[in-house]
Specification:
By secondary structure, this protein is an alpha/beta fold. It has one domain (about 5-135). It has four helices and seven strands; from the N terminus they run βαββαααββββ. Strands 1, 2, 3, 4, 5, 6 and 7 form a seven-stranded mixed sheet that branches. Helix 1 (about 20-35) packs across helix 3 (about 65-75). The mean pLDDT is about 90.
C-alpha cells in the first residue's frame, strides 16, 4: 500500500473467545473515555495532535459478524498506538460515497510482524476526524 509502514510496539489483543477480545478492547476504550467529560478521543501525531474521535468505530464494529469483529478487534490496541504516534503519511482520498468526507488510510505492523490498516474519516466542513475502521491485511 505504501513504502513506509508504522512499526507499533504494542502486541495484538490475545484471547480465544470473542467475548474476551471484545472485553479487552472495550476496556481500552473505557479507559480513554474516562479521561474526558465529553466524547472519547485520542490525539494524533500525524494531524498535529488534533483529536480523533473513537465512537464511530464502536458503531461500525457492532454491524459486523462475530468472526469479523474478533479479527478486527485484535488490532485495536495496535491501532490506538498507530494513531497516537504515527507521522508517516497516509493514503488519502475523497470518500466516493460521501463527497464531504476525506478518508485517510494508515499502514501499521504489529510486534508479531502482521500488517494492518487504520482508516480515519475527516469531515471537510468541520475538520472533525473519526476512527472508522481497523482491519488486517488479509481480508
Amino acid at each position: 500500500m505504501g513504502d513506509k509502514i508504522y512499526q507499533t510496539r504494542i502486541k495484538k489483543i490475545k484471547g480465544g473467545e470473542d467475548e474476551t477480545i471484545f472485553k479487552q478492547a472495550f476496556a481500552l476504550y473505557k479507559q480513554i473515555s474516562s479521561k474526558t467529560k465529553r466524547r472519547a478521543h485520542i490525539r494524533a501525531a500525524y494531524f498535529n495532535k488534533e483529536k480523533v474521535f473513537l465512537d464511530f468505530f464502536w458503531h461500525h464494529i457492532q454491524e459486523k459478524n462475530w468472526q469479523d469483529r474478533r479479527r478486527r478487534l485484535r488490532y485495536y490496541a495496535c491501532a490506538l498506538d498507530l494513531i497516537k504516534n504515527n507521522r508517516i503519511p497516509s493514503i488519502t482520498k475523497i470518500n466516493p460515497n460521501k463527497r464531504t468526507e476525506k478518508l485517510h488510510r494508515f499502514s501499521g505492523m504489529t510486534v508479531e510482524e502482521e500488517i494492518f490498516y487504520v482508516q480515519i474519516a475527516e469531515n471537510l466542513k468541520t475538520g472533525e476526524k473519526h476512527l472508522i475502521s481497523i482491519f488486517p491485511e488479509n481480508i
